[in-house]
Amino acid sequence: MSLSRSQPSTTTTDTILPGPPSRNNFSSLDLSSSNLLAFPSGSSISIVDALSLQLISTFPLPPPPPSTSSPSLSPFITSVRFTPSPLNRNLLSTEPSSSHLLLAAADRHGRIALLDFRLKSIVLWLEPDPNPKSGIQDLCWILSRSDSYALAAISGPSSLYLYTTTGAASTATASNCCFFKYDASPEFLSCIRRDPFDSRHFCVIGLKGFLLSVKVLAESENDVILKEFKIPTDYSDLLRLEKDVTPSSGGVGGSLAPASAVFPLYSVKMAFSPQWRNILFVTFPRELVVFDLKYETVLFSAALPRGCGKFLDVLPDPNNELLYCAHLDGKLSIWRRKEGEQVHVMCAMEELMPSIGTSVPSPSVLAVAICQSESTLQHVAKICSDAPDSPSAEVDFDNPFDFCDDTVVHSTTHMISISDDGKVWNWLLTAEGTGDNHKDTVADSHEIPLIGDNANAVVVTDGLGKEAGKQHELGNGNKNRLSSTLSQDLSFKISLVGQLQLLSSTVTMLAVPSPSLIATLARGGNYPAVAVPLVALGTQSGTIDVVDVSANAVAASFSVHNSTVRGLRWLGNSRLVSFSYNQVNEKNGGYNNRLVVTCLRSGLNRPFRVLQKPERAPIRALRTSSSGRYLLILFRDAPVEVWAMTKTPIMLRSLALPFTVLEWTLPTVPRPVQNGPSKQVLWSSKDQTPVAQDGASTAKEPASESTAGSSDASQDDTAESFAFALVNGALGVFEVHGRRIRDFRPKWPSSSFVSSDGLITAMAYRLPHVVMGDRSGNIRWWDVTTGHSSSFNTHREGIRRIKFSPVVPGDRSRGLIAVLFYDNTFSIFDLDLPDPLANSLLQPLFPGTLVLELDWLPLRTNRNDPLVLCIAGADSSFRLVEVNINDKKLGLQPRAIKEKFQPMPICSPILLPTPHALALRMILQLGVKPSWFNTCSTTIDKRPHLIPGTASFKGDLRNYIIDLPPVGDSVVPEMLLKVLDPYRREGCILDDETARLYAIVVKKGCAARFAFAAAIFGETSEALFWLQLPRALKHLMDKLVTKSTQKAPVSASTPELDDVTMLNRISSKGRSVIGTEKKDPLSEGQLRSMAFQKEELWESACERIPWHEKLEGEEAIQNRVHELVSIGNLEAAVSLLLSTSPESSYFYVNALRAVALSSAVSRSLHELAVKVVAANMVQTDRSLSGTHLLCAVGRYQEACSQLQDAGCWTDAATLAATHLSGSDYARVLLRWANHVLHAEHNIWRALILYVAAGALQDALAALREAQQPDTAAMFILACHEGHAQFISNLGNSDDESGSSIKDTLVGLPGLNPENEDVIAVGEYYGQYQRKLVHLCMDSQPFSD
């Protein structure tokens, strides 16, 4: 018989349940902008939907090729990072790909792999050298070109590598992908972070404060710009740790181990500010630091707060001026920035590891991440929401948890944390204030749906759906507790809104339920216990995890023991019995044995056989009968105890025989009643005779007695038997009925069956066959009714487990056995074949891990059903493997679950097949009625299946399409709705909260819909662009209106003219402080990165100035002068320049600038400056000084050009916003846009600048060059809609100037419908739609 075996690379991920993450995984975690969570668990990667907290897939990283004859194990995975690449929309020139789902993963062997977890394959391997010995500390994706990302990696303690990933789709391995290497020895590098304002720029931080700033201009060594900094910090603790670490443990002194391997509890992390450019937040173990990259100095530092552990990580809030700092002891500190300063004050302290319901010692928090997609959707909700007619418009009176109070939620932030007990936690952080003090600021926020903060949201707890509406607040137990109150009456609190339980610890035991026909339910009665799809796993921490194999999730977890679970068995299908023991002291050698019965229905743990004193021998194993009525307790060098497992277990008797193995018979297939008499002979316990060495009974029984006993056995269906082997190799079979234990008289084989070369170490028994294995690798089987037998040698090490495959009517007599060897490998043999060894299925190593325990899943009902093997790996994973028998060929492959049970749908559009994902994106952009999301296949009329205020689904797809825009094919949306209908029926397109938000957004115009669609697919920058586009269009239209009114004989007052007049009237003396109006620091968030208006740029620059007033040093003074000149505060700049010491090398240059600048302020100041200036200038100054002289004479346009030539693009924009207007200001924006597009490759930021500068054609050309036909068409629609709305507002005015302006602004410049580019975009979009429809029809739908 030939043998076929699948390769490890074909491993499916649907049937692997990972173990818990640990510090060996370097506390790695990544949360993508599309709500996908990835974290390593041992040598596997877990992908989780962060919204519903359901496990999507688990990907085991294949092991490296073995260097010796022994197989290699997969090393720990140390870092994972999702690619930031968006959904590829270039369908007309390339085939649809899943490049947006790539995941970079690195391990302790220094290997880096690019994975496509949806296709479950490795796309590209990256390795620093042929024999890597150093592990990877951290990874980060860096934008190297407009269409590709490079990968930065910290390898070993101090090496930085940059890899190119171009051509990953067509290359399997790449050994020469590294184009840059940097060695920072003797520093220990800790983490890498990408700049949110410039994706080409990233920073690397070291444990001792070393900071490396890197900018990648292209994928070549000469195009990488480096800059080194040093953050002063106290690292005396690190020096002490270095002394304690020896080189043999992978420490310092020539070691290649990464920082987290040498110092696992010494964490140094860093994060860029999402609101302020060049601002870094760094946490050392005992210090929080704010560092300014431009000034190259520390702006603020704070010591570790009292009462909490060392800093673990720092996370800035995406929308608010808040910092979240995680601590090693599981606490979370919340810091808020003071207004006008870069100073942070701790305002709350919360617990990420609640003391209630956790084990002792408490599990450790390993990593924390903030949900970016929720923050982006909150931006969309805030901008697109209007005030309701009634304050109680959104209150659900049917829900007891919906009520009105005086508190107003200012912001909500979702946070994900993972702990080393296998739990994933979903936290909701809220900032609340009283409604009376904030009526004006939150008037528009009543209707804002708080994404994910629905009282009826369903979350997953322990793998099962559970209502989390109460949002249990964790902490000191006070439900109404406010963590702190600030000057603005803001309070912060944290609520646990979801939890996912994975395997809680290293798996030590595995048990599957195999109830026989006489097993009954635990609640009593005569109902037979059916086979259930549950597997019990005992762990090293003493917990028992019950896995639901139909959902591939942990259904329940019971904390039973305080030490390792050493034995675990099922009692029927609803009870478990387990044991553990601990040694009292080493001298006396006494043991405390603990036996517990766990009821799965009630969750109660009931100890039995409780003794007051320690015992001489520990328990060795447990064996339960298939009915769950009897239990055998095997001791080490002590008699075996037989227990009846009633409600209160009763010990029946003890057996003082030198057993080596014992096994109860497995359930047999129901067979018709045989005509001949049975060969079984039943003996009472008191008449037993010992078994002879040759395996045959020495007693001779009369034929009449044998016949009578046989007749009794055929009528007694409640008796159960077990087979055993003794130390001398003798075999026997006993039968238990009630309190009686009888000798089962088997038919012995003709030849001697005593093992001569080793003890019997494993056994399997299913009437009438007994299979044995010994420590020499021999396997014997024996039919106890006929005496037939056979044996063969496996030529392997000793055998530890033998498991019979489950049988159904029609199966062969003996069937398959799974054999686990002492070297943690396994094989499968077919005993019905003449030569089982020659036709066995050998599996020397399950991909990358050793096998600790195995058993068959007894769920077969038909002989055509595949056999499923349950495997507990040494990496703490649990796996299901199919064993197929086709045409006498054994095949081993991971089990693919066709119908996976899910407590709730996984609403993650990014996981759909690429054509279907693009179809959904187009539908959301064009607009569909919210009632389309309602599902009619459920009886639940409330959420999450129904959007309030909308009709139910009617069936006619054309009823759900809103008025289509005049672009593209009008038939395509209906066809796409038909393609997406299977997902809609399953409810896995949008969750209820997001669908309710879309019901609001769909009425707010096309730009709002486009922003929503981008946010759903995790494209944050594009979403911010669509949100800012209406403002940029208004800015452009106001500028056109200003031009038209200047040409008209009658002047008209417009808002833009008022703003310009206001700016012109502000003197240079009054611009050193921010306006007196009070801004909400929790409102702007990442929209600052899209700023283009003069007021916004100027205020942002003014906000920074107080941060640097206390800085000293010559370089700091030069930067401060430059900032003051940029905002027009010349008097303060002159005063600062004149304060320069005469001994300074900058004295004469500063004096020259002081004289020039003072002349633009006043004559008296000019005379004062002249008195201080020396006669000569002995040194040259920076190139920026020339811009100051240009400002002094009013040549601001040239000054801006000089700043842009020097690369100071933001400073040039700030200077232009202060002094320029009209076409001069637009010229600066246009050049800035070209730089952002072609150098920084940030198309969305460039598009906003193009629109603000009036270069709509350039914006359209950029979209066409980026090969985004759908976005180009949507851009035209949004611009036309904004233009029409502006003209409509002008038409409402009664004056003649409004009508004249309306006549002059009939069309948008460059985007008229007759324009050739506009026509080409429409035609190209139509082709894109048709190609998308064909691709959708060819793709099969799937949801996870």
Average pLDDT level: 77
Outline: elongated
Strand-pairing-aware structural class: alpha+beta
Percent helix, as a range, is 10-25%
β content, as a range? 25-35%
> Rounded to an integer, what's the Rg over CA atoms?
37 Å
The tally of beta strands, per DSSP, is 61
Sheet having the most strands: 6 strands, mixed
Q: Give start-end ranges of low-pLDDT stretches.
A: 1-13, 168-172, 387-403, 436-487, 671-716, 937-945, 1048-1078, 1171-1182
Our count of helices gives 24
State the end-to-end distance.
37 Å
How are the SSEs placed, and which strands pair?
Elements: E1 3-5, E2 16-17, E3 30-31, E4 36-41, E5 44-49, E6 54-60, E7 77-82, E8 102-107, E9 112-116, E10 121-126, E11 136-145, E12 148-155, E13 159-164, E14 173-174, E15 178-183, E16 189-194, E17 201-206, E18 210-216, E19 224-230, H1 236-244, H2 259-262, E20 269-272, E21 279-284, E22 287-292, E23 297-303, E24 311-316, E25 322-327, E26 331-337, E27 344-351, E28 365-370, H3 372-384, E29 407-419, E30 423-434, E31 458-461, E32 464-467, E33 491-501, E34 507-511, E35 534-539, E36 543-548, E37 553-559, E38 567-571, E39 575-583, E40 591-599, E41 605-608, E42 619-624, E43 630-635, E44 638-644, E45 650-655, E46 659-664, H4 703-715, E47 720-726, E48 731-737, E49 740-743, E50 760-766, E51 769-774, E52 778-783, E53 789-793, E54 799-804, E55 816-821, E56 826-830, E57 841-843, E58 851-856, E59 867-873, E60 878-886, E61 889-894, H5 914-926, H6 972-986, H7 992-1001, H8 1006-1016, H9 1020-1047, H10 1055-1065, H11 1094-1104, H12 1114-1126, H13 1130-1138, H14 1147-1158, H15 1163-1172, H16 1184-1192, H17 1196-1205, H18 1209-1219, H19 1222-1238, ...
Parallel strand pairs: 1-61, 10-14
Antiparallel strand pairs: 2-60, 3-4, 4-5, 5-6, 7-8, 8-9, 9-10, 11-12, 12-13, 13-15, 16-17, 17-18, 18-19, 20-21, 21-22, 22-23, 24-25, 25-26, 26-27, 28-29, 29-30, 30-33, 31-32, 34-35, 35-36, 36-37, 38-39, 39-40, 40-41, 42-43, 43-44, 44-45, 46-47, 47-48, 48-49, 50-51, 51-52, 52-53, 54-55, 55-56, ...
